[in-house]
Specification:
This protein is mostly helical and 125 residues long. It has two domains: 1-59, no CATH class; 71-117. Helix content is 65%, strand content 0%. It has five helices and no strands. The termini are far apart. The relative contact order is 0.07. The model is unreliable at 53-58 (pLDDT under 50).
Length: 125
């Protein structure tokens, strides 16, 4: 991080915001990497420019020309990545369902074993 605050032009601010959104990094890591003095400075820029979506897009736009010039290989690669992502998400969802089921079973067993109601009643205040 820099020792002294630096004045940034509006163009520099918007460029940093675009890079921040594209990077997916934490604010602190991004500031440290790019030498921005303080994370609160980045927060103030985000607040100032959050309504200007046309200037700071969250994701890069893909133009029709780029789509037309893509090869079959890039489509196959993207398709394979998306299918893998779907499989991973389905596994995570199934694991979450199993976790919920195990938690419910544990609560049921505890209610029977200790003979006390554990779950909150719907009419309780």
């Amino acid at each position: 991080m820099r020792k002294r605050p630096t004045k940034y032009s509006e163009e520099e601010r918007l460029n940093y915001l675009r890079l921040y959104h594209e990077s997916g990094m934490s604010k602190r890591s991004f500031c440290k990497l790019h030498g921005i003095y303080d994370g609160t400075l980045l927060n103030s820029w985000l607040k100032k420019y959050e309504n200007r979506k046309e200037v700071v897009p969250l994701q890069p736009e893909i133009h029709e020309e780029e789509m037309a010039n893509r090869s079959k290989e890039s489509y196959k690669d993207e398709n394979a990545q998306l299918k893998k992502r779907i499989r991973d998400l389905e596994k995570a969802l199934e694991f979450s369902r199993l976790e919920t089921l195990a938690r419910d079973m544990m609560i049921d067993k505890a209610e029977v074993y200790f003979d006390i109601p554990i779950r909150k009643k719907s009419g309780a205040k």
